[in-house]
Amino acid sequence: MAFSKFKASRLFDGTQFIDNSVLITKQDGTIEAIVATEEAGEEIEWLDGILMPGLINCHCHLELSHLKEVTPPHTGLIEFLCSVVTKRGFDPAIVQTCIAAAEKEMWENGIVAVGDIGNTADTAATKANSKIYWQNFVEVLSFTDQTASEQFTHYQKQQALLQKALEQRSTPSRTTLVPHAPYSISPKTFELINQHTAGQIISIHNQEHAAENELYQTGGGDYLRLFKIFGIDSSPFPITGLNSIQSVLPYFNQGQTIFLVHNTCMTDPDISWANKWAAQHHIRLVYCLCINANLYIENKVPPIELLHAHQCEIVLGTDSYSSNWQLSIAKEIQSVCQHFPNLPLEKVLQWATSAGARALQWDDQLGSFTKGKQPGVTLLNIESGLSKRIV
């Protein structure tokens, strides 16, 4: 059997750097071994950069790829949301073309698995022929209890459409229902999602803006501007006097893995409370960071050192083309390293590979250069923020 041999400036196996080593794979990308350079023999392909397993993008909105450069940077989150929800009527052919181009970009950049948010089944055609592993999060929105059942049924139909379209794929995929955010899900809707997601992986946008906490503390704040677009004059959510994470996390009690996405305004007490509550109630929390989206929208960064100090389970995402300059985990790695230079590089690379694979529960094949796996092989240049698929 023929093998491929790769040696790069550095080799990261998903957990640690291994110096003076060569990666050996079978022709189909299955990992055979990592050996010392002097034991690897001839016909070694030499590469400039960090050789590492395929990248994991734990938060994306592929269906919004047609909104690239539609909303300018640094508008602030509330203005951004108001802009996105009012931009409708795009030519379906353009939407499909942009979805396909974004999927191709991610694959060529070495991304092998994606946690992808969608309100529709628009991505089905592209995903049906994709080699990427897809964890599809069909995102439910329902501001009031009065619309909860009707809205939930609508999104169940989108889930069924997506599942049917992807059932013939050879590459794994899953499809689950998830809440959008604390400012768009009513109590009854939370209860319906909880009942239908026992033991599943779900996600929720969490504390992207200080107004999210204010909404639950007082019933006021800037989110009232967003509600007016939907004909809602006052907050439809219960006033708890607490921050949003403490107000909504208790809705879940079915052993879910919950991706908390963004976390830009999360505080030390919030993190301590959330981790303690999750442990007591058998919920697994995964903190997904999309630093370039935070910079694009609000020119802020999430409290990454604080999350790391709390030993949180951390992964990386890109968010969408409506809120990022590119769909590149390499650029996310670069930005994290630039803004938080005291973080160990090995730790950040783990978040992009093995941690992401574990969080999406595909670490049996992805995330590390373990013999017998097919994790993909990616070459990363941190200085340029570029990556490319090698295998």
Describe the structure using short key phrases.
391 residues; alpha/beta; Urease, subunit C, domain 1; TIM Barrel; 2 domains; 6-stranded mixed β-sheet; 4-stranded parallel β-sheet; 14 helices; 14 strands
Give the secondary structure arrangement, pairings included.
Layout: E1 3-11, E2 21-26, E3 31-36, E4 45-53, E5 55-60, H1 77-85, H2 92-108, E6 111-118, H3 124-128, E7 133-140, H4 148-166, E8 173-179, H5 187-195, E9 201-206, H6 210-218, H7 223-229, H8 244-248, E10 257-262, H9 268-280, E11 284-289, H10 291-297, H11 304-309, E12 314-316, H12 329-339, H13 345-352, H14 354-359, E13 377-381, E14 386-389
Parallel strand pairs: 1-4, 5-6, 6-7, 7-8, 9-10, 10-11, 11-12
Antiparallel strand pairs: 1-2, 2-3, 4-13, 13-14
Q: How would you characterize the overall build of this protein?
A:
The protein has 391 residues and is an alpha/beta fold. It folds into two domains: 1-52 and 369-391, Roll (Urease, subunit C, domain 1), CATH 2.30.40.10; 55-366, TIM Barrel (Alpha-Beta Barrel). Helix content is 34%, strand content 23%. The strands form three sheets. Strands 3-2-1-4-13-14 form a six-stranded mixed β-sheet, covered by helices on one side. It is globular and about 70 Å long.
